[in-house]
Known about the structure:
Radius of gyration of chain A: 21 Å
Number of strands of chain A: 11
Structural class of chain A: alpha/beta
Order of helices and strands of chain A: EEEHEHEHEHEEEEHEH
Oligomer: heterodimer
Distance between the termini of chain A: 51 Å
Strand content of chain A: 15-25%
Number of helices of chain A: 6
Structural class of chain B: alpha+beta
Strand content of chain B: 15-25%
Largest interface: A-B, 19 and 22 residues
Distance between the termini of chain B: 46 Å
Amino acid sequence: MHIVVLTKPVPDPAAAAERLGPDGRLDRAASPAVVNGNDEYALEAALKLTAEHGGEVSIVTMAPSGAADTMRKALAMGAARGILVTDPALEGSCVRSTVQVLAAALKDMTFDLVLAGVDSSDGNGGVVAAGVAALLRLPYLSNAARIEPDPDAGRVSVRRLTATGYDLLEAPMPALIVCTQVLGEPRYPSLKGIMGARSKEIASKSVADLGLEPGAVGGAAASTKVIGSTKPPARGATKVVRGSAEEGAHEIVALLESRRLI
Amino acid sequence: MVLLSTSSAAHRLTGDQVLLRDTVRDLADARIAPRAAEIDRSGEFPEDIRQLLAEHDVLALPFPVEHGGVGGDLLTICLAIEQIARACTTSSLILAVQDLGSLPLRLGGTPEQIARWVPDLASGKTLICFGLTEPEAGSDAAAMRTRALRDGDDYVLNGTKRFITHGSVAGLVTVFAVTNPDAPRHQRLSCFIVEVPTAGFRVARLEHKMGIRGSPTAELELSDVRVSAANRIGAEGDGWSLAMRTFERSRPGIAAQAVGIAQGALEAAAAYARQRKQFGRAIGEFQMISAMLADMDAQTEAARQLLYTACEVIESGAPDAARWSAMCKLVAGDTAMRVTTDAVQVFGGYGYIDEFPVERMMRDAKITQLYEGTQQVQRLVIARALLGRADA
Lengths: 262, 392
């Protein structure tokens, strides 16, 4: 099986050092980056699937050229190779643009599954994967809590989390699956994996390499624009309830009642 | 533990080193830090942490790739030791002693000897320890009494080794012994790999220690222990030189441990100073506290930079490697002691109880001023290099 995982570099939440440019958009060059947390869950799921069924994992990233460093961690975890779509023309891309570029990158590849995280911790859009599936006319299986491919039959079944339980979905492969954290914690890269990642290939592709019209993607063609950004209001004072479980429960219920929350 | 927003010297590290450092840090935060207090309290060797470090190839770091290692250079090994020590000093010793104990083998072993022992050391299946110190031969290591007498194709070893870290859990013991008492002082010793258990080898006792309490420190008795000549590392009489070359590369590991302890204490103290309120405000807002924290940060970073420079200089094959290794260990050990002592002070009475990690860190810091050469021995090494220079 060949599984492609969509991975995005996002500002490192632990560093809490992200900066916005004058246009209100994230200054990616100034913000230390890591692989998006939810994408690591998708990568972990892909690595487990190829360990079980054989095959390889590739990662596809659209990001500024410095992202190769961030992609090394995904390679150190066990992905075989990376494809980095990078082009100054892609700066300021909107969701639609990102979808077009990722779909174009995938169009030339042969794969059984594309795995993606639920959303990214910077943009939080959560629609790129669905857009890619739509453009490539791939079956779209979202909120996966379990993935069971049958490579011989060319089919995959997925448990999709719902508010009340789960749906059982089945689709022919290739298909695109959005992975939840229920699939399992991402592994730490082994140190041998880290040292070995250096020799793995990260192929860089430009907009022209993908056969896209210049000007059709990126900031120039963006369908959305950041018109302002403000910091979220500071969190109000928290109230800590202490005491026995019974006293505490009464106090919490009284508090919620007083705020008309129950 | 709270991660500080300050960055730490990433500019001089390669991308691989940064990723490796961060991976070990994440692993230590998630899996080792929660165990640190219990390891200290129980005084038991953390077999689970040894397995964790083996699983993630951390114990493979010092060993060559062709024998299952990671092939990390000195700085990379130190980055890993530093990050583990930031969470738990005892746990960092598992890597530091695997490095220390195997250095004579890596420095002076034949290709056959390396192929024979390194794979199991790199996989973490076997631990190795370093047997130099004796009851009467500490700083004056050349005064050791353990004898190795040649008997056909074997040597017969007799003597006592004291303060041997991991002496009771290691499967291989690197033992230094006198082979020629009549030779000049620095040509009397030879180095052997003793595979244990073996007849005549006994762990005589374990020490009760102030710190690094999960790390077993053993007294080893060798009475008529028979070792094949194929287990001798280097030529007869090479022992002293092997031990000194070992320290050139192992003292930075202790410096890394000391920097890690200091960093852990600094982070704990800074987090506490932000959160602890007295007189209606966070104690970090008081200048007496914030000045202490600033000094702790600056001193820790200075020790770290000296360590990283020492690693690069030693790795480059500089002739004064012994001086650099002694300098970084001296400065880092004293820094760890000072910073952890101040961390306890920032915590006030809470720093003195085991509800917080800083009292443990202060107890652990003390050993970095004592082992692999006391601070006084480090000064001796530095001063000799300084005054012995023809152009000085």
